[in-house]
Amino acid sequence: MIDECLAVEFRVQDDGCPLAEATQAVGVEIHAQPPQLRADGYALLQFSSPRDDELKRVLDDDDRIRYLHVAETDGRYRYRCLSKEPCIVHKLIDGGLIVENLRYRDGAATFFGAVVGRDVLKGVMETAGETVGVRLERVYPLQSDAEGSPSQRWDITPPQEACVRTALEMGYFSIPREASSEEVADELGISKSAFLERLRRAEETLFHQVFE
Description:
The protein has helices at residues 18-26, 53-61, 88-95, 118-129, 145-148, 150-153, 158-170, 181-188, 192-211; strands spanning 5-13, 30-32, 36-37, 43-50, 65-73, 76-83, 98-105, 108-116, 134-142. The chain is an alpha+beta fold and 212 residues long.
């Protein structure tokens, strides 16, 4: 059994990805789930963005995108579609990368995931090295849940940890703010009031522990 698990972050530029190109054309950030490759070669894409009709139009006009479906929830668009454009992420998955989520912004993609063991990381790195535009941004060890989970180390609940983590990833704490409380809540699948309550409770707990 291999005990070591490594978190990794890859950045992909200029790979011809429809979602990446759409963010460059419109200036909207997209958060996506790992694409699911079908037997017919098409990839099922599920992603979300702030409400933006121009992004919807750009995607709808892209010949590589088929069966685009858009639903609106609390000011945020959720998309489902098929893409016939080969995605680099599948090459990294074949190399051993466990993809957790993807973010598209300014014409580039960032893949967040994990690999099990150094040998698997080597294989993923070799795959990335053979692929134009792929660069490893970060790699660091994942500790066990008892040692490495913020909810364990800082005495916050797992739902509070999810709120803080998602808000951070979506730019809620950025200046200027890149995502509203409604958008983060929608990404989490909870109400705005539930998100704000969990966030404030987490902040209170964290600040008490830091300053004490």
